[in-house]
TrEMBL record:
One of its GO terms (molecular function) is mRNA 3'-UTR AU-rich region binding. Component of the RNA exosome core complex (Exo-9), composed of EXOSC1, EXOSC2, EXOSC3, EXOSC4, EXOSC5, EXOSC6, EXOSC7, EXOSC8 and EXOSC9; within the complex interacts with EXOSC2 and EXOSC4. The catalytically inactive RNA exosome core complex (Exo-9) associates with the catalytic subunit EXOSC10/RRP6. Exo-9 may associate with DIS3 to form the nucleolar exosome complex, or DIS3L to form the cytoplasmic exosome complex. Exo-9 is formed by a hexameric base ring consisting of the heterodimers EXOSC4-EXOSC9, EXOSC5-EXOSC8 and EXOSC6-EXOSC7, and a cap ring consisting of EXOSC1, EXOSC2 and EXOSC3. One of its GO terms (biological process) is TRAMP-dependent tRNA surveillance pathway. GO terms for cellular component: cytoplasmic exosome (RNase complex); nuclear exosome (RNase complex); nucleolus. This is Exosome component 7. The lineage of its organism: Eukaryota, Metazoa, Spiralia, Lophotrochozoa, Mollusca. It comes from Magallana gigas (Pacific oyster).
């Protein structure tokens, strides 16, 4: 991850601002920066989305392929994440520099989506123990400007919302099973993401905490919670990072902030996705692929 070197005076300024609920860019402690969102950008995917928050730019694409259910989940489809950190995002990612961060993002996405109540994998099963849809979700980090986990989760949820899987008809004849995949672009199955989680990263700075930390704020953070939160405030995964410790009161306070902000983030994202879909072909592309 890109790092910023700050002087002691800069760190004190940032900590005091957070303590007074007025960050260096004027935001309150629970405010996100402006987010740009686009879906349906990549024609060679089943669904795609691009999200930009300040200088963080992430592209997510979904490809649906037929495969075999996992032996331990014979009546469910599969959701697999692959994350790549472009060397153009920051010099730190050159060579194999981004592999560790990519693995971290992929692991926490897998963990937050591994919750029966937040994502219905049974809807992706065609024939139990034999055939199911596998959704391969590729996440590409194009530019690094802080708060990577949150932006990656927003891009993933938006790409899954944009995903349209062809309808499959199952027929049996003399013991043989045949699958017929519809080639009608309107005869599709949508992925239900209403209850899918977004990740909220809560950073402890001084005696207070913030969400959507900038690179400078991340440099002042000694401990953070990365939480998967649904629109109903259900926490689907939590991970604590950093060398600093968290006392029980701070931990509870940060968890409540994460749930409160996560609820609003999910609702705002769904409202934006529904509005973009209503606009249809009238929507104006705003990103680099226009």
């Amino acid at each position: 991850m890109a790092e910023v070197d700050l002087s002691d005076a800069e760190k004190i300024f940032i900590k005091h601002g957070v303590q007074d609920n007025c960050r260096e860019d004027g935001r309150g402690c629970e405010d996100y920066r402006h987010i740009e969102l686009e879906t349906g950008l990549l024609s060679n995917t089943t669904g795609s989305a691009r999200v930009r928050l300040a200088n963080t730019d992430i592209l997510a694409g979904v490809k649906a392929e037929l495969g075999t259910p996992s032996p331990d989940k014979p009546n469910k489809g599969r959701l697999e994440f692959f994350v790549d950190c472009s060397a153009n995002a920051t010099p730190v990612f050159e060579g194999r520099g981004g592999e560790e961060l990519a693995a971290e993002i992929g692991n926490i996405l897998t963990r937050t989506y591994d919750c029966p109540s937040c994502f219905d994998l049974e809807a992706l099963c065609i024939i139990p123990e034999e055939q199911c849809w596998i959704l391969y979700v590729d996440v590409l980090l194009l530019e690094c400007g802080g708060n990577l986990f949150d932006v990656a989760s927003i891009a993933v949820k938006a790409a899954l919302y944009n995903t349209k899987i062809p309808k499959v008809t199952v027929s049996r004849d003399e013991g043989l099973v045949e699958l017929e995949i519809s080639d009608d672009p309107y005869d599709v199955q949508r992925v239900e993401v209403q209850s899918a989680p977004c990740i909220v990263t809560v950073c402890k700075i001084g005696h207070s905490h913030v969400v959507d930390a900038s690179l400078k704020e991340e440099a002042c953070c000694l401990a953070r919670l990365t939480m998967g939160v649904t629109e109903r405030r259900t926490v689907t995964g939590v991970r604590k990072e950093g060398s600093g410790s968290l006392d029980p009161a701070s931990l509870e306070d940060m968890m409540q902030t994460g749930k409160r902000v996560g609820e609003l983030l999910n609702k705002s994202l769904m409202d934006s996705l529904l509005e973009e879909e209503r606009q249809g072909s009238k929507k104006k592309p705003v990103g680099f692929l226009k």
